[in-house]
Amino acid sequence: MTTQITVKVNGVEHFLDVEDDALLLDVLREKVGTTSVREGCGVGACGACTVLSGGMSVSSCLALAVRYDGAELTTAEGLDETDDVVSSFVDCDAAQCGYCIPGFVLMSRELLAENARPSECQITEHLEGNICRCGTYPEIRKAVAAAAERRSPR
Predict the structure, then answer these.
(1) What is the distance between the alpha carbons of residues 39 and 92, in angstroms, rounded to a whole number?
(2) Distance (Å, rounded) from C-alpha 84 to C-alpha 150?
(3) Contacts of 102 (CB under 8 A, 6+ apart)
(4) Which of 41, 54, 58, 141 has its CA 20 to 30 A from that of 70?
(5) What does the pLDDT average to over 53-72?
(6) Where does the signal peptide begin and end (predicted)?
(7) Structural domains of the chain ordered from first start
(8) Rounded distance, CA 105 to CA 103, Å?
């Protein structure tokens, strides 16, 4: 059975016919074309499929698309190089292969929206559900701290 849903992805409204059991990950990749949303593990344990819904992180590999009818979603495609988190990741060399980085960037944006000046421990705790197989964790933590610094008034 299919259902028509409306989702706003990165500010663009999409009217989509989706199977009732379709995962948000697959709908975003196959029907919307957001390739930064990636399947890593398929069980919500790696963070590669992270998107933001209303500013809150969602593991799109576990989420049914029909549940996001009317939602405003942000993927990494919705951010550009002038975004403070994105530019901090670039400046801090916080990517090696880059597969995991969209999820880390979105989780970092969620953290900084909740806590403008997180400690290194708080950064580590917030990102613990994301896996970087290349092991760039020190650079990723440095990038989040740099983004917080950029956002903070002096």
Answers:
(1) 25
(2) 7
(3) 36, 37, 38, 48, 50, 75, 76
(4) 41
(5) 98
(6) none
(7) 2-78 (3.10.20.30), 84-151 (1.10.150.120)
(8) 5
CA–CA dist 109, 141 (Å, integer)? 13
d(CA 66, CA 98): 29
As a dihedral over the C-alpha atoms of residue 98, residue 57, residue 28, residue 35, rounded to 10 degrees, the angle is: -10
Q: What is the pLDDT of residues 9-31, one digit of tens each?
A: 999 999 999 999 999 999 999 99
Q: For residue 152, what pLDDT band results from cuts at 50, 70 and 90?
A: confident
- For the segment 94-106, the average pLDDT, to the nearest whole number, is 96
Counting every residue written for the chain, the total comes to 154
Cα angle 119-129-35, degrees, rounded to a multiple of 5: 115
DSSP state of 131: -
Task: Report the phi/psi class of residue 137: left, alpha or beta, with left for phi > 0 and alpha for psi in -120 to 50.
Answer: alpha
Angle at 128 between CA 117 and CA 134, to 5 degrees: 110
Q: Could you tell me if 74 and 51 are in contact, meaning their C-beta atoms sit under 8 angstroms apart?
A: yes
